[in-house]
Amino acid sequence: MPPKQQKSKAEKAAAALSGGKGRKKKWSKGKTKDKLNNAVLFNEQTYEKLRKEVLLLASICFKAVKLLRYPLTNLLRPLLFLSVSAFAALLLDKQLHNLKRRALFYL
């Protein structure tokens, strides 16, 4: 094997500058979350959807409809639910139309 040739200082500097800076390894791709298009006001479609879903379900996940604080406390609650207890972030109600299950609402 022939001996290795020594590089000059200029060649070493040129080789160091020619390569781009390596990027840091990214281990996780990261989960992307879909942006929600939250409505601010009720229109007829969302209000009717709310009324139908409240009548069907014993408990409702509030991620589906983000506008539930006002209609539950003021419009629908006196008609559909009997209040059991209320705290700052939790309302515990019984449904009036069948009374077989308690509905748990997180606001």
Any descriptors?
107 residues; alpha+beta; 3 helices; disordered C terminus
Tell me what the structure shows.
- With 107 residues, this protein is α+β, with helices and mostly antiparallel strands.
- It has a domain at 44-106.
- It is 33% helix and 16% strand.
- It contains 3 helices and 3 strands, in the order αααβββ.
- The protein has a 3-stranded antiparallel sheet.
- The chain is rod-shaped.
- Residues 99-107 have low confidence and may be disordered.
Write a brief structural summary:
The chain has 3 helices and 3 strands, in the order H-H-H-E-E-E. With 107 residues, the chain is an alpha+beta fold. A 3-stranded antiparallel β-sheet has the order 1-2-3.
Poorly predicted parts: 99-107
Gross morphology is: rod-shaped
Output mean pLDDT.
65
Q: Counting H and I runs of at least 4 residues, what is the number of helices?
A: 3
Write down the Rg: 31 Å
Distance between the termini: 78 Å
Q: Which H/E pattern describes the elements?
A: HHHEEE
Tell me the major beta sheet: 3 strands, antiparallel
Lateral arrangement of strands in the main beta sheet: 1-2-3
Structural class, from helix and strand content?
alpha+beta
The tally of beta strands, per DSSP, is 3
* Helix proportion: 25-40%
How are the elements arranged and paired?
Elements: H1 9-18, H2 44-56, H3 69-80, E1 81-86, E2 90-95, E3 102-106
Antiparallel strand pairs: 1-2, 2-3
